[in-house]
Write a structure and sequence with these properties.
The structure holds 2 protein chains of 2 kinds.
Chain A: H1 2-17, E1 27-31, H2 33-42, H3 45-48, E2 53-62, H4 65-70, E3 72-85, E4 90-102, E5 111-113, E6 118-131, E7 134-147, E8 150-163, E9 169-171, E10 180-182, E11 185-190
Chain B: H1 2-18, E1 27-32, H2 33-42, H3 45-48, E2 53-62, H4 65-70, E3 72-85, E4 90-102, E5 112-113, E6 118-131, E7 134-147, E8 150-163, E9 169-171, E10 180-182, E11 185-190
Antiparallel strand pairs in B: 1-7, 2-3, 2-10, 2-11, 3-4, 4-5, 4-6, 6-7, 7-8, 8-9, 9-11
Classes of the chains: A alpha+beta, B alpha+beta.
């Protein structure tokens, strides 16, 4: 069971790790490099990732036969709790819990919680990248995840974060294939 | 039960309707107006929304005492099925199902799916908007939702869409308040 869980989790995390938002939507500034350095200096990560707690959701189908038979999606519930904060980085403990929801009748289970969780941490930083004399400032998330049901499994991945208003954030996912899809991770601050 | 469900839906839709992304991240083009009209003419909405089915997820807490006691969130799974497609607009029928998950598992109910679904439609179009001397081209979504259990209830909201890579999209939500939060809607295409 743990292996199957880990395989699913690895697929989801790989999908999230390999994706980026189109164009420069994920940059908080794009333009002249001197100005970019000013933006990075003033828009420190503790101002951008302002909440101590975040909750998030993502939706996945991993391409398993069982999913097809039952029309099952996995809804992942992410809980992020701050562990450290400075002007250079903000780190959270992360817990991921999966709930499986099926559209077909019995023997398909309408709703089922996956009884083993992924846990780990994520660190947010701001980065400045130069491309052809144009500089981008963006928020980067570095994830380091483990599986409570399989101590041999771990996954590290890094991606850019799209900052929305009011402290919401989005991490893009890769494109769908014939039997698989992954929504972006939609993240909200919690007061 | 239905009253709670509907009150929750009203709050969630209200949060989505008032949310916008920061700056012009939700624009697919921002710049000189004659170019904007060219971008608008060539990037028709049927090219931007290329899938006939989309799935999405969002997460809400509405601020009820029960939610606080149970540390619970509502996870919404959205299914969008295309009903009409042209260069001017793409329309989908929506089914929205809610899953209630509690963090306080010892004292509160195990995850369950709402007994009634919300149905409706969403219409996607592209728009050009002039702001000063600059023009923006963006994707607009117009949502109409209703609840068959309470025919008096209707949820309408209009919002810009953030287009991500691979046909993924995001609809922003409003800021969290004490005890209440709402993620963006994270949307993925389905092949």
């Amino acid at each position: 069971m743990a292996n199957r869980r880990s395989a699913r989790a690895a697929l989801a995390l790989a999908a999230l790790g390999s994706a980026q938002a189109a164009q420069a939507e994920n940059a908080i500034y794009q333009g002249e490099c001197n100005r970019a350095y000013q933006v990075q200096a003033s828009s420190t990560i503790d101002k951008l990732v302002m909440h101590k707690k975040y909750r998030a959701v993502s939706l996945h189908r991993f391409g398993l036969d069982r999913e097809k038979e039952c029309d099952t999606d996995t809804v992942t519930h992410w809980t992020m709790t701050e562990t450290s904060r400075s002007s250079s980085q903000v780190t959270f403990d992360v817990i991921m819990l999966d709930t499986l929801i099926a559209d077909k009748p019995a023997p398909c289970e309408r709703v089922k919680v996956w009884n083993d969780e992924l846990y780990g941490n994520v660190t947010f930083t701001t980065k400045l990248e130069e491309k052809n004399a144009i500089c981008e400032v963006f928020v980067q998330a570095d994830w380091d995840m483990f599986d409570a049901g399989d101590p041999e499994w771990s996954s590290k991945f890094t991606n850019r974060v799209l900052m929305l208003n009011a402290g919401s954030m989005v991490v893009a996912a890769s494109g769908p294939t014939a039997n698989e899809y992954n929504s972006p991770i939609a993240i909200t601050g919690v007061k | 039960m239905a009253a709670v469900r509907i009150a929750g839906a009203v709050l969630a839709l209200s949060a989505l309707a008032t949310g916008q992304t920061a700056k012009a991240e939700n624009a697919i083009y921002q710049g000189e107006c004659s170019r904007a009209y060219q971008v608008h003419a060539s990037n028709t909405v049927d090219k931007l929304l290329k899938y006939s089915t989309y799935k999405a997820a969002s997460l809400q807490r509405f601020g009820t005492e029960k939610e606080r006691q149970c540390d619970s969130d509502t996870l919404s799974v959205w299914t969008l099925k295309q009903t009409q497609r042209s260069t001017a607009e793409v329309n989908f029928a929506i089914t929205l199902k809610d899953i209630f998950v509690a963090g306080n598992t010892a004292e509160c109910q195990a995850p369950y799916v709402s007994s009634n679904s919300v149905y409706g439609t969403v219409r996607f179009t592209t728009k050009v908007e002039q702001q000063g001397e600059l023009c923006e081209v963006y994707v607009l979504s117009e949502w109409v939702l209703n609840d068959p259990v309470d025919t008096k209830w209707i949820g309408d909201f209009t919002n810009r869409v953030v287009m991500l890579s691979h046909g993924s999209m995001v609809v922003a939500s409003s800021a969290p308040s004490k005890g209440a939060h709402s993620t963006p809607i994270a949307i993925t295409g389905v092949q």
